[in-house]
Amino acid sequence: MTLPPVPADFHWHPEPWGASLRCRPFAAIARHLFTTRQLAIPQDEAWDQVSASLGEAPPRVARVRQVHGNDVLVIRAGSDTWRGQPDVEADAVVTDDPALAVAVLAADCLPLLVADRHGRAVGAVHAGWRGTAAAVAVKAVNALEREFGCHPSDLSVVIGPGIGACCYEVGTELVDAFASAGHGRHLIERWFSSPPPARGSRQRHALTLDLATANVDQLVLAGVPAEAVHVASLCTAMHPTVLTSYRAEGTSAGRLAGVVALPPRR
Ligand SMILES: [Zn+2]
């Protein structure tokens, strides 16, 4: 299997089960990885392998029942909010517990990982178009500040593989949904593009959505430094042997996990 090239701040990391994607600058502040299709997520045993890949003192992996909304599950160290089953409906999960990793699943939707550079807390976010319109990443940033005192300027974010604007043709109703959600016209024009058809083509203009740019813009507006947001720029639909894509494969598509944990407590 050939792994696609990634930006300079990312690398493929060999795992017992295949390869994971990691971000170098982010690794300095948090344990993390994105899985590839070589790991059969979401089977229970796969979570043990994910945990083991996070290194010493492998954390339990907390998940949520993702519903394309913008609710954030807060798991405080010492609390028992996480009972071992992903039965809480939310699309972001944050924790200050170094014994816990938090994870989201995606197959075209973006998995985002967040960490505080002072080690206060981490978070994982699932952002498809609905979650992005509902600003779920910003809700996670707000929760990290409110619950754990993480200043947005201290946060770093990694945006993992997801459907790229290259392959994400959408209908105009999505533009309306983003406008109804309160996003400014100038931003919506940045996030949706309508490339001109080829000369002589009778094809109508295809409208595409750039989920990664929309999330980067929202995070920066929320106070996360632009240089602390790392984008893998890997389109799930274009790398079917490595990644998983709902658009490319339909309902049989597997899932990729994005997982993050604080460094182990010394
Ligand atoms: Zn693509």
Give a structural overview.
With 266 residues, this protein is of the alpha+beta class. The chain has one domain: CNF1/YfiH-like putative cysteine hydrolases, CATH 3.60.140. 24% of the residues lie in helices and 24% in strands. The protein contains eight helices and 14 strands. The chain has helices spanning 24-27, 44-53, 129-133, 136-148, 172-180, 185-191, 211-221, 246-249; strands spanning 10-15, 18-23, 31-34, 60-62, 72-75, 92-95, 100-106, 110-116, 122-127, 155-159, 192-193, 208-209, 229-231, 256-261. The strands form four sheets. Strands 5-6-9-8-10-13 form a six-stranded mixed β-sheet. Strand 8 and strand 9 (122-127) form a beta hairpin. Helix 6 (185-191) packs antiparallel against helix 7. It is globular, with a radius of gyration of 18 Å. The chain starts with 9 loop residues before the first strand and ends in a 5-residue tail after the last strand. 47% of the residues are buried. The model has no long low-confidence stretch (mean pLDDT 92). Bound molecules: zinc ion. Zinc ion is lined by residues 164, 166-167, 235, 237-238.
